[in-house]
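Minutes, project check-in
Item: structure for the 196-residue chain
Input as provided by the requester:
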Amino acid sequence: MASPSQASLLLQKQLKDLCKNPVDGFSAGLLDESNLFEWSVTIIGPPDTLYEGGFFNAIMSFPPNYPNSPPTVRFTSEIWHPNVYPDGKVCISILHPPGDDPNGYELASERWSPVHTVESIVLSIISMLSSPNDESPANVEAAKEWRERRDDFKKKVSRCVFHEDRRLGFFVLCRGWANHAVVSIVYSTDVIVLGL
């Protein structure tokens, strides 16, 4: 079992790696610099999908025994998707505890493994946005619309993508001795000039 200090060291390393080698499609950093176990994530809607053009904010919460247990991810931005519960919690296989699925929907190899990183988790969520799984949905109504009323589904997703409060400015700054990543989303049309 991983100790809190082992989890902290691993999360520090993953944060440092993401600062040194940013990945297209998302930004991730600490929600609060004093807490390595709560991250803020912003996912850019993948090209050629219904989510293209959207910026979706989420909170990734890590348990003290990470990486032996998976984090939870909850969107704080409005999102309409079969694999996202109405409260924003993401439901994908790699975020389910390791071992056999008591419901028989997933293979043990599809569930959480300690080899996953923040990067692999977020890339899986981006993949989920591109290819919803409507066979075991978290949001039954979204799954029904996806299957039976695709135009209604597209309209709801479009409202999430082009929500009027989503006029944005976006930047990522890696700084300081601990290589903390600071992520800010600005919800206005104001121009912000940063002096570094």
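Outcome recorded: The chain has one domain: 4-187.
No further action items on this chain.
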